[in-house]
Write a structure and sequence with these properties.
Exoglycosidase that cleaves the single beta-linked mannose residue from the non-reducing end of all N-linked glycoprotein oligosaccharides. This protein is α+β, with helices and mostly antiparallel strands and 889 residues long. The chain folds into 5 domains: 183 residues, Jelly Rolls, CATH 2.60.120; 108 residues, Immunoglobulins (Immunoglobulin-like), CATH 2.60.40; 363 residues, Alpha-Beta Barrel (TIM Barrel); 105 residues, Immunoglobulins (Immunoglobulin-like, Sandwich), CATH 2.60.40; 74 residues, Immunoglobulin-like (Sandwich). It contains 20 helices and 47 strands. The strands form 13 sheets. Strands 3-2-4-9-6-7 form a 6-stranded antiparallel β-sheet, with helices on one face. It binds 2-acetamido-2-deoxy-beta-D-glucopyranose (9 copies). One 2-acetamido-2-deoxy-beta-D-glucopyranose binds next to loops.
Amino acid sequence: MAQVVTPLSWGLLWLFLGVPSALSSAGEQRLELSLNGKWRLSNSNRSLLLPAEVPGCVHSALQQQRYIEDPYFRFNDLLYRWIALDNWTYTTTFTGSPQIRVKHKVLLIFDGVDTIASISLNGIILGKTDNMFRRYDFSVRDLLNDGDNVLEVSFFSPILYASKRWKAHSSYTVPPECPPDVQKGECHVNFIRKEQSSFSWDWGPSFPTVGLWKGVRLEAFDILQFIQLSSLPLYNHSCSQWRLQAELLVDVVQTFDGKVELSIPELDSKQTFQMRFLQGRLNYNFTLNINQSREVKLWWPSGHGDQPFYLLTVRGFLGRFLILSKESKVFFRTVELVQEPVVGSPGLSFYFRVNGRKVFLKGSNWIPAHSFQDQVTPASLRNLLRATADANMNVLRVWGGGVYEQDLFYDICDELGIMVWQDFMFACAMYPTEDDFIQTVREEVAQQVQRLKSHPSIIIWSGNNENEAALATNWFSIPASLKLMYIKDYVTLYVNNIRQIVQEEDPSRPFLVSSPTNGAESEQEGWVAENPYDPRYGDVHFYSYVLDCWDWKTFPRTRFASEYGFQSWPSFSTLQSVSVQEDWSYSSDFTSHRQHHEDGNQQMLQQAALHFILPNSTDPLKRFTDSLYITQVMQAECVKTQTEFYRRSQSEVIEGKGHTMGALYWQLNDIWQAPSWSSIEFGGKWKMLHYFAKNFFAPILPVAFEDDDTLFVYAVSDLNRGLKLRAVVTVHSWSDLDSVCTLTSNLLLVSGGSAVAIFKQSVAALLAGCGRCTRLTCLLTFHLQNEDGIQQGPNNHHFLCSPKDAQGLQRPNITAKVQENDSGFTVTLHSAAVAPFVWLDLGNIPGRFSSNGFLMVTRNATISFEAWCPTSVAELSRSLTVTTLMDVY
Ligand SMILES: *[C@@H]1O[C@H](CO)[C@@H](O)[C@H](O)[C@H]1NC(C)=O
Ligand SMILES: *[C@@H]1O[C@H](CO)[C@@H](O)[C@H](O)[C@H]1NC(C)=O
Ligand SMILES: *[C@@H]1O[C@H](CO)[C@@H](O)[C@H](O)[C@H]1NC(C)=O
Ligand SMILES: *[C@@H]1O[C@H](CO)[C@@H](O)[C@H](O)[C@H]1NC(C)=O
Ligand SMILES: *[C@@H]1O[C@H](CO)[C@@H](O)[C@H](O)[C@H]1NC(C)=O
Ligand SMILES: *[C@@H]1O[C@H](CO)[C@@H](O)[C@H](O)[C@H]1NC(C)=O
Ligand SMILES: *[C@@H]1O[C@H](CO)[C@@H](O)[C@H](O)[C@H]1NC(C)=O
Ligand SMILES: *[C@@H]1O[C@H](CO)[C@@H](O)[C@H](O)[C@H]1NC(C)=O
Ligand SMILES: *[C@@H]1O[C@H](CO)[C@@H](O)[C@H](O)[C@H]1NC(C)=O
């Protein structure tokens, strides 16, 4: 629409400058009217008319008004497919006030519109939207009435839009066209700037959402409107000085000369800038030099130090009048991605240096926490991120098929020291490069980088998920003659546009074009390497479901493992909430419906069968719950083996490979109740893998493995200082709780940030020395201790045969007693035999144990339970079940 701005009255300004009391009598410089809350919602033929919350979406509104049941229940994802095929209109009526209309400019701001919509106010079309990742605003002063105003947002079906754009793109295809059938999803998601996994993924349902997923408000102002403040601390190595680059985005009604003051009082740092604010929307950059006589406390990743911050105050003045006042947190830290020659290798290193210190990244990958983002509560977000830190992780990768997360996500990561590898939202596809597509992406990228760059938790920007690999290894069967054209599109989007904007907006962090990639080597090869999975460069994603995961030799000894994993089923209580009795079998329609990965259910059992006897109870329900359990045992052991391999490979280069400095398994969380690679179920319950992660990511970790019948124990340390350690290896018989013998290594100085062999012996000699032991009758536990004999790090175990072949395993007949004392609930276990994979389950009582899924080689054990909601000893005792491997045999 045409934008009419009444010229700012200089008389009025003079009044402001001269007579301070006039400002208050004339009202505030700025007014805000939230338009969140109840709107009206209708479908195209108006057969449905209902109230709807904003922020929200159509699915949530229909569910809240009971037009539909829980979309996650059973097969409802198929039943409710019509929702995203219809067009929907959100309408609200609000009262305009004279106070708003007298302001010189009024903006109508949408923080997030999902996705294809036409917006009108009082019957006049303001504009159209095509990108859920952008903020949209419209200047509306002259369209407002003093009385009722009608605001309408008409959404076009995202599925039809994607298909329409795909049809219009007739010159060549932009694959993939559709997801695999097993995902039961929608097609052409790459043609719409929307959460890519909302059209289905191999771990999630197809719920293409529609709605106003973020807030809506009116902002009215006379002089200027604050839009965003971001700050980047930059460190000058040559003079050891910090400076803060602050960027202020404001919308100015009419050009004026003013003054901006930046200060960090706690650091005795303050500067004032004379400014000419130009009419319109512009960024203003300021550099605040940090007082060199003050020591700046640094932000550290979890496990490496604290996460202190300072308050930055920005104040804007017109004459003596305060027209702007903002405070924001500032965290000081530096980050580098180091890609330099590696001794003994033709490749390049790939590791992160934070505040000058080399840091091993350990963590997982984050997917959207709900199909309907409006249903992600602050409590659920905090719970997931606390579980991340509690499992000794220091990083999450916000994966490129989801959404740029909400501010709170990054605030909590800042607070907990969780580093974030931030993808841009492009995944597993080729993308179009028409002008309007590129333009909307450019705006998206600029807005997101400006919104997020002040967060120290974000340590890297990454252009896309797996699109370099998709091109290089030809996932989409593109004829060789056309490959160059697709590479050109790839470079246009990620290098010439996204990378260019990021580098301009943010000189403080590395940018990587894709993941996996060969990094600097990919750039050498024209941005698409011949083999982006080359373990000697960059990062690697690696999956194999058929190879034996207990054999570490099957894993690539990569520089950095950013994705790897195995599926498992969630617990029975989680499935029960969305299923009925006829669904509770491993071969039910429900069980195959929820599996979105081809052959996934079979792969889990096949992998489990390599080492475990598969459940085969005559009781169908027990057989089902036992199967769920065995998939979790399999997953936990597989990811443990692989992660321990990466952690112990950090100090070695073997045949040019190694020097591994990152292990991020796929995936942390779930979007619904279904089998997936996650370690935390939908709803927050920890799978066995998450309990294992707490151990295998421990700062000090003993790792055992065999190489040609020789047993090695490595000591892995993420500490910043050396520590003298010895390994204590205990041999147990499967048939007896009294251990057979114990071997102890010499003390060894383990330097901080390293992995070293601390114990080495041939398995045959070890067993012979211990007497009455064979590979089939015995197993090993081990731990590290310091020179005073105090244990450092967790206990660990090493099986000398598959548990399915173990001789002497007995029913442990575990008894459990729940108690409560001042510090919470405890469960005391008593076992009559060695018990592998002891699993405590409290059904749907929210909370977590201090340890679970463990190997019990003692008669007694005490585990604490952290309840997330009020509960009692009686309730816990009633709900508690204990499963061990023998129970499923
Ligand atoms: C109106 O649309 C709904 C949802 O798409 C559909 O189920 C219904 O049959 C339509 N009603 C009429 C009268 O066309
Ligand atoms: C949605 O709107 C488009 C464009 O106006 C129209 O072609 C389509 O039929 C509408 N869908 C429904 C279900 O009415
Ligand atoms: C860093 O400090 C040196 C020495 O004071 C100065 O010459 C250089 O310009 C500074 N670099 C930046 C990027 O400010
Ligand atoms: C720097 O801080 C010191 C004391 O911490 C203070 O005396 C001095 O004035 C400050 N310098 C500037 C330029 O603010
Ligand atoms: C401010 O800095 C940003 C990022 O470095 C840059 O994109 C922008 O053009 C600068 N704006 C001004 C007014 O200098
Ligand atoms: C399950 O048990 C039955 C009878 O006890 C047996 O016939 C069948 O082979 C077993 N199946 C598996 C997969 O072990
Ligand atoms: C509560 O019980 C646990 C486990 O027995 C014990 O470690 C803890 O010290 C007890 N706390 C109090 C306050 O008694
Ligand atoms: C467990 O209980 C069963 C049945 O009472 C018994 O046969 C078995 O010996 C017990 N296990 C152990 C290790 O005592
Ligand atoms: C183990 O617990 C039992 C009771 O459950 C108790 O009698 C016994 O003394 C405990 N043993 C040890 C070593 O703590």
